[in-house]
Amino acid sequence: MYVAYLATRSIIRSVPKHGMHGRPGCHHRNLTTLPSHHILPSGDKIPSVALGVWQAGKGEVGAAVQTALKTGYRHIDGAWIYGNEEEVGKAISASGVPRDQLWLTSKLWNNFHAPEDIEPALDETLTRLNTEYLDLYLIHWPIAFKKGSNNVLDKELTANPYPTWQKLEELVDKGKIRNIGISKIKNLTANPLKHKPAVNQVELNYFNPQPELLKWSKENGLLLEAYSPLGSTKQVKEALSVPEVKEIAKKLDITPAQALISWHVQRGTIVLPKSVTPSRVQENFQGLFHIFLTYGMAMECAKLMWRLIVVTLPDDLFDKLEKAATSHPPQRVVNPSKNWGLDFDVFDENWPL
User: Fold this and answer.
1) Measuring CA to CA, which of 55, 146, 262, 353 is 20 to 30 A from 300?
2) How many angstroms separate the Cα of 242 from the Cα of each of 41, 230, 314?
3) The predicted structure's pLDDT at residue 312
4) 263 pLDDT exceeds 90?
5) CB within 8 A of 10, min separation 6: which ones?
6) What angle do CA 190, 196, 202 make, to 5 degrees?
7) Which residues, 6 or more positions from 147, have their beta carbon under 8 angstroms from its beta carbon?
């Protein structure tokens, strides 16, 4: 499906004036697209949708990855701390998808921020994933723990992550990493950076849409990735029942989950839906490669162009959902500050370090 999208523009240009195969009402002016990928500062193209494997348990994550790759996903988002990289790697190897057609993301855990610990941690991830390089390596959290400790804060590296970043830059130059990114901007961008952050992965969903961060990121050329795009596990049912979401799904003949994922991509973010249920893995991806009727487009045309074009929400429906999402107090779900025993909130702007 990803390859099919790349051919879309030439297909559209070849559509006759009266539609494909002469069918009236099937004209390219009715067809609109969203990006299948974004271009990073390195020139690399990162697919706009990934399978997230957070909380995907052993014995089920491999099947989810194989289903995803068969469906058309080419972007897998994982992390060392998830504890499932070996199974993910085996599933990728078994898929037969060439490595140069895949985008693999992993993350540096808090205990490995010391420069001397970073490459061994990365090598462990590379071995488990059975790959020679990562397309993207993120600093998982802007918090450093002392190596071998149970969440004992390394105040020096937390206050100044520049040594960590410099080591990551070195690994980019060695070819083990293609791009590096973050999970929250903190005490980094004031330093002279050889390789700037390519991506900032944050919680983004209907309940926590972060419009100010999105605006700032676009203005500063930093791509956002949305984790928990449908909300937390407890929020998903509520998110899929939002009246505006249900209205969009009904009008465009897509599912509520597909409506929300399309909204994320249309906001200009990478979206990381996660599931180990095969039907949902497929649904989340196909929502973006699903042709819809734009007010009067003929059904036979939709069938002809099925999966060739990425869904775009009409402006009025997109604006309606955006307004609904940004009109209520934000609800952040993922905040490990208390569990880590920190005496400050990791999301506060000023830390008492």
Assistant:
1) 262
2) 36, 11, 18
3) 82
4) yes
5) none
6) 90
7) 111, 112, 114, 117
Amino acid at 136: L
- From CA 79, how far away is CA 230, in angstroms rounded? 20
d(CA 321, CA 263): 8
Instruction: Give start and end residues of each alpha helix (H) in 130-242.
Output: 155-159, 162-174, 211-219, 236-240
**Tokens found for residue 309:** 């074009």
295 is a catalytic site residue: no
- Distances in Å between the Cα of 73 and the Cα atoms of 101, 172, 344 are 10, 25, 38
Q: What share of the chain is helix, strand, coil (3-state, %, to 5)?
A: 40, 15, 45
**Torsion angle in degrees (nearest 10) through CA of 341, 346, 349, 353:** 40
The pTM for the full model equals 0.83
Which of these is catalytic: 5, 82, 137, 206? 82
| Average pLDDT, rounded, for the chain | 82
CA distances to 43, 97, 198 from 38, in Å: 9, 21, 11
User: How confident is the model over 313-346, as pLDDT tens digits?
Assistant: 999 999 999 999 999 999 998 899 999 999 999 9
